[in-house]
Amino acid sequence: MAHLLLAGTFDRLPELQIILGHWGELVLFYAERLATMEHAAGLAKPIAHYLRHNLYVTASGMFLPHYLIRAAAVVGHERLLFSTDFPYQYREGGKARAFIECCGLEGSSAGWIETLLIRTRKMVRFRPGADI
Predict the structure, then answer these.
(1) Annotated catalytic residue: which of 18, 85, 91, 119?
(2) Residue spans of alpha helices (H) in the chain
(3) What is the pLDDT of residue 81?
(4) Does residue 85 have an active-site annotation?
């Protein structure tokens, strides 16, 4: 992902949208470091712009509140999607919803959860009859 960012991919393809699993595959934790390279890379916009306009991020079943807070800070609430890493990190009994409801992220109310699920359904194609 860092290579795509620094190679100017989003300057050439500004409508390109990428979904990153596992809380951004560490890219979000290197956002400041990548930003120090944006001028040398000759990018048209700051790295922060591409992170907020071209990336969506999902937890992939890693229910860690501090990762969620970091992801929301870097890409914004509206760029968060819901997913699990089924069957590897599947947790039965509503643990995913409980995580979102109790994570401490501002706006993690029932309305926000429904918005998150609706956004995910729009972005990802599910097999007929499947639900999240």
Answers:
(1) 85
(2) 2-6, 9-12, 31-35, 38-41, 47-54, 65-75, 95-102, 110-123
(3) 83
(4) yes
